[in-house]
Fold this protein.
Amino acid sequence: AVLLKNGGVLPLPRNVAKIALIGDNAVKPVVHGTGSGAVAPPYIVTPLQGLALKVPQASIIYVPSSDIAGAVRAAQAADVAIMVTGIVSGEGVDRHNLSLPEQDDKVFAAVAAAQKNTVAVVFNPGAVLLPWADATNAILTMFMPGQEAGNSMADVLFGDMNPSGRLPLTMPNIENEVQFTQAQYPGTPAVLPVNAEYSERLEIGYRWYHAHGVTPHFCFGHGLSY
């Protein structure tokens, strides 16, 4: 787990009374990929289950991603809002873009504007765009967390485990920030490309940002701890 941002809300106090839990991934988390990255876990601990086990005295109000108004009301009435999102990827098919689910981005922005104590938890297969990051108090990215997703998330959020990971990649500010051309990726011709030009040479990832003087959203090697 990599703690990308912490404005002081983490670790959460064990005596927290009311939690607003937002997002479809809170009850149906992305914990593995597809293709060769797919597994058949014997069980999955969801974020909702993990929080309920960690702080059984707390009132946890779950709201799905589709209910923006309900999420805002729940967040305003809670001590803290925990927002959970995720995106899947796998062998043989590239993601169309680096965005998280559009509805998650919408509800996250609304909740962050309504509650200063917001924590975003991201289950991601690689780099993703985080358009609501500036308004969010804390951001924890867990990549593909596996079957114990909920318990491991709760352990980090409440300080039982230190989030000591570091980013193995660069988080960009915008889509195609490195300005790949069609010839570079996915290649030519546009339909069923068979040729790709590696004209970027060594300017991949953080090397491109360094060479062009661009500050990424979160840099390679970034990671906070308690």
Q: What stands out?
A: Residues 102-114 form the longest helix (13 residues). The helical segments are 47-54, 68-77, 102-114, 149-157, 206-212.
